[in-house]
Design a protein that fits this description.
alpha/beta; D-Maltodextrin-Binding Protein, domain 2; 3 domains; ten-stranded mixed sheet; five-stranded mixed sheet; 15 strands; aromatic amino acid biosynthesis; lyase; ACT_dom; Preph_deHydtase; phenylalanine biosynthesis
Length: 287
């Protein structure tokens, strides 16, 4: 199997890949769309991409590219606890650091620390936390990266200060997207916890339209764990709704929802019905 992920090495996405595809070939790509394109083009069998964070919410590029461009099936999900550390090339005093590099989400997750402990430092957004660590490892000036233990290990950086994120209960969801011809490995399908992701387009904007959609799930007692509106990109005020529900698409009640929404003139598209995994760090692991 070949798996693409948002790289370089040292990202939280790589942690997700190592947990779900131990020992398989993993290839890093610079952007999330490139990860998906590699699967669409047949270069890779799977890709692992971040989709939602506890603090920053949805990763828009993932959902927009998945729905409008790549259209790959979701075959699994893993939730990774996020611990952000301040990484430097050498031992430094905080007052010596004049620049901090990381992904925009990681910078936002550490806003209070940066505001109070590093007010003199200018923040710079990078494509990933791993890229930030790689950049800082090559710099001569006193700069820092925000990243994880894996990034520090991969690029020979010092963890100057641990757990600098603002909120302790910080997690990120990652989707596993597959080439339709690929066989999903047992390490992914083994989980008994399952979820279905879908999006719904309303026939037109009218009073009570969204209420009718939600009611189709509610009276069947189907729990909706997430709902979010996203622009259709066809004009101002035109939106569709992305939903996660805690049942399988094959469930007879879910099929009833599909029939009811079709009768209302709505369009419902299932993005995937898949198992959910929780990341657990194994004793002695390098992650």
């Amino acid at each position: 199997m070949k798996i693409s992920y948002l790289g370089p090495k040292g990202t939280f996405t790589k942690m997700a890949v190592d947990a779900l595809f131990p020992g398989e070939e993993a290839y890093s790509y610079a952007t999330i769309p490139q990860c998906m394109d590699a699967v669409t083009n047949g270069e890779m069998d799977y890709c692992v991409v971040p989709v939602e964070n506890t603090i920053e919410g949805t990763v828009p590029i993932t959902m927009d590219y998945l729905i409008h461009q790549a259209k790959l099936p979701i075959v699994g999900e893993i939730v990774i606890p996020i611990r952000q550390h301040l990484l430097t090339k050498n031992e430094l005093e905080l007052s010596e650091i004049n620049a901090v590099y990381s992904h925009s989400h990681a910078i936002a997750q550490c806003h209070q620390f940066l505001h109070t402990k590093l007010p003199q430092a200018v923040t710079h957004a990078t494509s990933s936390t791993g890229t930030a660590a790689e950049m800082v490892a090559e710099m001569e000036e006193p700069a820092a990266a925000i990243g994880n233990e894996l990034a520090a290990k991969e690029f020979g950086l010092t963890i100057l200060q641990e757990d600098i994120h603002d909120y302790a209960n910080n997690h990120t969801r990652f989707f596993i997207l597959a080439n339709p011809a690929a066989k999903v490995p047992e390490t992914i399908v083994s989980s008994t916890n399952r979820k279905t992701s879908l999006y719904v387009t309303l026939p037109r904007d009218y009073a009570g339209a969204l209420h009718q959609v939600l009611a189709a799930f509610a009276w069947r007692n189907i729990n909706m764990s997430k709902i979010e509106s996203r622009p259709m990109k066809t004009g101002l005020g035109n939106y569709f709704f992305i939903m996660d529900v805690t049942c399988e698409a094959e469930d007879i009640l879910f099929q009833g929802v599909q029939q009811e929404l079709t009768a209302l003139g709505c369009s419902l598209t299932v993005l995937g019905s898949y198992p959910i995994h929780q990341y657990e760090k194994k004793a002695g692991a390098n992650l």
